[in-house]
Amino acid sequence: MIAGVLTRVIAVANQKGGVGKTTTAINLASCLAENGRRVLILDLDPQANATSGFGIEKKAGASCYDAVLGDGQLAEMILPTGIRNLDIIPSEMDLCGADVELATSENHLYKLKNALKPVVESGKYHLILIDCAPSLSLLTLNALVAAEEVLVPLQCEYYALEGISMIKQVIEQIRDSGANPGLKFGGILMTMFDGRTKLSQQVLSEVQEYFDDLVYETVIPRTTRLAEAPSFGKPVIHYDPYSAGSAAYEVFANEFADRHHLAGPDSA
Question: Are 32 and 127 a contacting pair, CB within 8 Å?
Fold first, then answer.
């Protein structure tokens, strides 16, 4: 247990796929863990990309499925990633069925929050990152109810601008409905930035102008190394620690920790 440290729960979400959501969850968690923070990733995407991104085999029954539906303990599903200070609750394809069962469950929006409560209260982690599926499924809505805020990775392309308004609206609906009145739109991370194109620069400028301080100063570049790392089952800081993508996520992790006043390793 980490004495005197409040565990933060943050959902990494965007209903649009291919925006660098899982890449951000994996590499943010890894950089924070390298800096001495205790981090847990909850892979809530049935595609299980965060799971395979750490080189962990997708196994039936290894996900949060049973715990979310009230048939098990979430803490029992936690696995080490092989990276110091960083654990994961993996995912697998069977998690797709959770949406169907959640739809017929009582208090279906609160299932994940209730399952996660003992892990949060254990004080074992500085941060729990929930990697959501690229959809507004019941699992994603459960993540938004369980989290205190949402980190939205946003690709530097035109269609990404259309999607950001939808996730913002869903956050407001979750908050206004009373399901999670304290939920915050915590920040936007611009990803896949290509400084050679006018489009990337234009999208970045428009998002910064509209969302102002919500946009992180760090911008994640489009790089081959970031795209390659998951196929080797490694975060980019372990796959190629001297790459531009690795440097960008290390800077982002520091900015993220400062913004959230995350306790340092001296509190562990």
Answer: yes
Q: Which is it for the CA torsion 104, 110, 116, 122, positive or negative?
A: negative
Residue 266 CA neighbour count, 13 Å, CB half:
0
Q: What is the DSSP string of 49-115?
A: HHHHHTTPPP-TT-SSHHHHTTSS-GGGG-EE-SSTTEEEE---GGGHHHHHHHHTSTTGGGHHHHH
C-beta of residue 16 within 8 angstroms of C-beta of residue 156: no
Paired tokens of 130: 């929930």
- Structural domain boundaries of the chain? 8-261
Q: Which residues contact 117 (CB under 8 A, 6 or more apart)?
A: none
Look up residue 55 and give its amino acid.
Answer: G
Strands (E) located in the chain:
8-12, 39-43, 79-80, 86-89, 127-131, 149-155, 184-193, 215-221
**In a 3-state reduction of DSSP, which class is residue 137?**
coil
Band of pLDDT at residue 196, cut at 50, 70 and 90: confident
What digits encode the pLDDT tens for the residues 228-260? 999 999 999 999 999 999 999 999 999 999 998
User: Which pLDDT score, from 0 to 100, does residue 205 have?
Assistant: 87
Distance between CA atoms of residues 234 and 230, nearest Å:
6
Topology of the domain comprising 8-261: Rossmann fold (3.40.50)
**pTM over 0.85, yes/no:** yes
Closest CA to 193 of 163, 154, 165, 231: 154
d(CA 139, CA 135): 9
Distance of CA 4 to the CA centre of its chain: 24
Q: Please, what is the Cα angle at 139 between 28 and 180, to 5 degrees?
A: 80
